[in-house]
Each structure stands twice: as C-alpha cells, then as structure tokens.
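Reply to dn_fold:

You asked what the input looked like. This is it:
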Amino acid sequence: MKELLIILMSLSLLATMMAIKTKLISNLNNTFFYSITVLVYLLTRIIFTIILFTVFDRQGPGDLLDVFYPQALSVKQGSLVYNDFYSSYSILFPYLLSVPLYLWDHALSIAIFFVIIEFAVLIVSLKYILPEFDIKSKEFVWFFVFCPINVVFTVYYIQDEIIISLFLVLAFILIIRKKRLGATIVLILGFFFTKLIVIYFFIPLLFVEDKKYLFLFIIGLIIPNFVLYVFGINIFIPLQEGTSQAVGPNIWTLLEYIGIIADNKIVYSILLIITGGLIGMQLKIQKMKNKFEVNHILNFILLYSLIFMSFSKKSFSFYFLIVIVFFIIFMLTYFEDKKASTDQSILNHNISIAAIFLFLSSITYIFQIILSHQISINFISLLSYTILLLSFLIQIRLIYMLYVDTMQKSRMQN
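and this is what came back:
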C-alpha cells in the first residue's frame, strides 16, 4: 500500500507541474476544466476514502480508529473530556468530531467530515484570498486538488491538521479585510477546537499591527481555562502528551539517527531564540512599512511554519498541511511573476525547489515509519535517510529564500 501511495503521489505532482508549466490549464475551457477537477476530487477524496474503509477494511495507520472515533463517541455518550478519558487535544476537539456521528455513527463519517473541511478550505481560499494575489484561480484549484500533501494526509492518514488550516485561513481572511476582532475570536476558537500546537502557527497573525488583539487572544485563552480548572477539569492533560523522541524531517531526527540525542531544554531554547528573532524581524518590518502588506504576512506564515518544522523536535510532515494554501499561493505567485527582475524577487525561478519540497514532505512521514522498523542498513533505510536529509535541506533553503525576499521587499518599499 505504501509503495502504491508513493507512486500515486509522484504521478499527481508530475501532473500538476506539467499542466501548469505547459499552460495546459489556461487553455482548457471552464466547463471541461471544472468537470475534470470535480471528478478527480470525488475520486481522490470521497471514493478513495470509502474504498479504503470498505474494500480494504482499513484499520490504520492514523488516529481515526484509535483516537478520533473513540473520543467523539465518548463525548456523544456524555463523557467528560480529560476527567473521563484521556485526550492530548484541546477540550472542544472531541465535541467537534462528534458532530458527524449524529448523522451517521461510524468512523467513516469523521473521515468524510475531514474531506468536507478540506473542501471548505478550498472554497473560502478561492473566493476570499486569491483575489489578493496575481494568480489564476484555475491553477490554484488544480494544484490544491492534485497536491500530494492534501491527498496523503487528509484522506490516507486522516490528519486533523486540516481543521487547523481552516481556522488559519479564516483568520487570515478577516485580517486582510481589517476585521482584527473577528480574526482574534477565530484564533481563540481555533485553539479550543484543535490542539496546543496551533499557537505557534498563529504567531504571525497575532503580531499584525494593533497589539491589543494579542492581549485579547491571551485573555481569551486564560479565562476559559481558569474557569474549567476551578470546576475540576484537568486542563493540563494535553501537556503530558508525547515522548522525547524526535519525529519529522528536522535536524534533531537526523542527529538521533547517528546516535546524538539532544536534550529537550537545548531544543526548546534554540527554537525560542530563533522564534524570538523572527518576531523581532516581523515587528521591525511592520514598523518600517506605511501600509499593511498581505505578501509580508504570507511570507511570515510560511517562515514560522518552516522554522518550526526544521527546529522543533516533533515536526510531523503532516503539519505542513496547516499552511498548504499559503504555500501553493507562494509558489504560483512567483511562478507567474516572470517579468520581474532578480532584484524585485529572488524566488521567481525556484518553483521547482518548492514543488520538490511538497513531494518530499509528503513521503517523509511514510519513510520514517519504514525506517523506524529497520534494524540494519539496507536500500530502504538508506533511501529514508536520503529523503529526510533532502527534505530538511530544502526546508532550510526555503527559509533563506523567504527571509531574503521579505527583507528585500521591505527595503524597496522604504
């Protein structure tokens, strides 16, 4: 199954890039284009999901059968999160997952619910975010539908990061429309409906312009949790999740494979220092600018996410699903900007680097699972080392590209 999945991912990415680079999509009439994309979306999302759970009697991997469905069923039956059962997610997450169970009490209903959320991410991005950028809607839709990240982690692994993606997209839309109060409320709800890790991905939106909304966000987290704690809910349960083992295409994972295990204090200190520097850079640029720049916010969203995935000890490949909309826009924006000079944008000719990263970040998780069961050095383990290393190096390359591009744009505007 894994081998077939890797082949399908390769073909999907190849089809996407070929269609965009050859301008094939632009030449298709609307009726034919949307007929193809709707058909592909139905096949790769709904039909594929149903086949996995019926024909192949899917039992894993992923958290659907071991975590999502049992927790959703528990709250549906009246159990209390944290007190009656353990959960590493925020307190409202199981209640959100229980919604589809009222229509159909089956684990497959949650999988389809995730697909519906992914579709909502596509629609709201297409309608409210794309008009802010000089890219074609057909290319965005095509990339989103065929993107290996979406298919693998939303359908095959049933990852909840697509829910975080929806909250991030909604908050971004409200921010670019100057509705900061609404954006802050969405970010607060995003925290309570997903998991603690979302705070890091929300940072670039929390430090936009007026800082009173950052204070409101903090208060919005503290007060509800304080009330829950007073009433006997152990809100610290999610902090007990996990082990110290490094996971994902990051420097700590690579070091562990050669026998070097970094202390968690060192890891968190490095991540905090880098993040602090990034916050300082964001605040400095925003102070220099005379107006709100949507491109700067997009760059910072990607910078924070890539830095987290590179230097956090647990940076699962599927975390990239959180920012997939912004990454696709980033690629297509600079791919379309053919007439700009190198001084105006250093990213014009790096579409291939970004596309390779999309593919590598999709298969890294699969190969890391394979690698974890390897005892001796063989072809698969060497391939796993290579993929992890390439994915990490490309992450660093993209961080550098985004940093230089952001700084160049800020200087040009001043």
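Confidence is low (pLDDT under 50) at residues 338-349.
Hope that clears it up.
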